[in-house]
Amino acid sequence: MTGSPTDVTAVPIARPTVLSLAIKEKAALYAAYMPFIKHGGMFVPTQKPYKIGDEIYLILALMDDPNKYPIAGKVAWITPAGANNNKAQGIGVQFPDDESGQRARLRIEEILGAALRSSRATHTL
């Protein structure tokens, strides 16, 4: 059935990219967490090109926490290759304003505690 005028071409539906990030230590969590983004966010090192607003499905693992945090977020930050100050190439994924985003943000802030007020450099600022 090719070539007839009634053929329907299937257009693939863009599905969010799935990224996985495993944070092994508190210093790495501090460097990757983005508290200045509304609802919180996480820096994910990647060489794949993204645009602001792209939908990302992030599966986050935090140190010894047996839970995984699935987050349907959006790209809110891009650090390109060759960025100033030798910053790692990657994207910042904004957490959604829903239960999954709130759960991840609260858990991260619980782990970081007073370190959140530190002035140490991070992957983004």
TrEMBL record:
Residues 18-107 form the PilZ domain. Pfam families: PilZ. It comes from the Bacteria. This is PilZ domain-containing protein. It comes from Janthinobacterium fluminis. The lineage of its organism: Bacteria, Pseudomonadati, Pseudomonadota, Betaproteobacteria, Burkholderiales.
